[in-house]
Amino acid sequence: MSLPHKNEEYGTEVYWDKRYEQEAEDASFDWFKTYADVADYIRKLIPSRDARILVLGCGNSKFSEDMWEDGYKNIVNVDYSPVVIEKMHNRHRDVRPEMTWEVKDVRTLDGLDNSSFDVAIDKGTMDAMMTSSTDVWDPPEQVIKDCTAEVSQVLRVLKRDGIFIYITFGQPHFRRRYLTGAHITRKSSLEINQLGESFHYYMYTLRML
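The structure corresponding to this sequence follows.
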């Protein structure tokens, strides 16, 4: 795995394309938590195996694969790296044909219809957009713009009663601002669950009402 020289490179398409080009065809990496770590939460939040699910910034994570194996077949995976999307499409097209892989920027989600998904999941993608900031208390305007753009687009594509699941190491006093505020144009409720015992992760669930 090729690590960036500076943390802010995690937020660039150039870094990810280069990294995925250098990695083996069967390489995978999961940020923060695997599906097995959060499966009990996911099953409660998504009781229907027929739910249409959007995975934001899928990378080459096995999260979607493991969800598929758990019965969630209707999954759309998006990432802005065409390199990883091609690799993941080739890897899964024969064995998991129901899953689709599309090149999209989470800040625009061009081509995805309004109110077309039951669930959207972000596991580390929003965090990658925050790496250009060295001050978590006062992030630069571009970070705020990028993160709120993603959340606004998620709200656009979620159905009525849809849910946005965001998994991160970011504590509530640093992350809540992106899930509440003026850019949240739909009535919603926010639930926060702490994961882990020694090093804590968090699962934020924004539910449309």
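The mean pLDDT is 90.
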